[in-house]
Amino acid sequence: MALVMKYINIMHRYMDSHGDPRTKDWPMMSSPFPTLAVCLTYVYLVKVLGPRWMENRKPFRLQNTLIFYNAAQVIFSAWIFYEIGISGWLTGHYSFRCQPVEYSNNPRVIRMVHACWWYYFSKFTEFMDTIFFVLRKKQSQITTLHVIHHGCMPMSVWFGVKFTPGGHSTFFGLLNTFVHIVMYTYYMFSAMGPQYQKYLWWKKYLTTFQMVQFILIMVHAFQLLFIDCNYPKAFVWWIGMHAVMFFFLFNEFYKQAYKGRKSQYKNLLMFFLQRAEKHGIEETVLANGHANGDCHQQEVSKKLLNGHANGKINGLTNGSLANGSAKTSNGYSSSGLKNGAAVLANGHSTTELTQRKVK
């Protein structure tokens, strides 16, 4: 214990001597441990304590709370975006190629320092995203990506506010708050109810937007490895590698959430093709419920299916034909004809109607 305290004291002395004196006495800035404690508490709360507490409770209905919260986050993110932009990036005072940290007490510079602290504080308000998932028993939404993203960000931003509040790395905050304006707008409309779902077709593109954000941050940060700029290389790697990590995490989420659906449809199609091959069906039944049901015989060629010339079936067929008998599903013809058996528009063969009960 004495050894641990010794190292803690050494770390505090280092931070006091190398940290920005302007933020030294600001809330949560004297030491990284309060921020670390909050982050660890968040992880324990949303992964262990919260689900356990909600296990035998009904999910909370929080529609109005969610609408208010997301609207507040939109406004808060827009304000921070404006403050970071007006303090440097959107006024021509900052260079996108190389921007050292300004340690003066110029009002514009101090405004950027305050914007950095508020950006740090916003990472705590975002914890509510996960807490609402817990209260609504949406455990499937509390993914590894979600917890890592929210759990790491306060600690990551703390170092920036402590040592480099301003300069090159604030580009991360500028982009991130803009993305959050769009993201929380989406969440707000989503919370308003099913009648707004038709306006939310762009969810897939929101994830793409987030990945583009991290690519831009990577390029912006790592360019300083190849040019001379009076900005700490340690923070270049810190920001850049965070962007790399989050890009791959979001990319994995994107593949599971969107491309995974295509894989499911492909597997379903392969299942039907294998069944068709097993039962000797010559024609292909498509996964989307369409069948090109041309019936081939030596002298018989008919295009059927409820009066549609192209043979499109509304619904999946799971039947098969063999030796003049037709097995039908939900009243639809499965594929082809053999021995000239006629298939009626409602999917029943005359042979089966007279000889046996249709299955």
Automatic annotation (TrEMBL):
- Output one GO BP term: very long-chain fatty acid biosynthetic process
Stretches that traverse the bilayer: 26-45, 66-82, 173-193, 205-223, 235-254
Q: Which UniProt keywords apply?
A: Fatty acid biosynthesis, Fatty acid metabolism, Lipid biosynthesis, Lipid metabolism, Membrane, Transferase, Transmembrane, Transmembrane helix
Pfam families documented for this protein: ELO
Q: What is its EC number?
A: 2.3.1.199
Specify where it is mainly localized: membrane
Membrane topology annotation: Multi-pass membrane protein
Instruction: State the protein's name.
Output: Elongation of very long chain fatty acids protein
- Which organism's genome codes for this protein? Stomoxys calcitrans
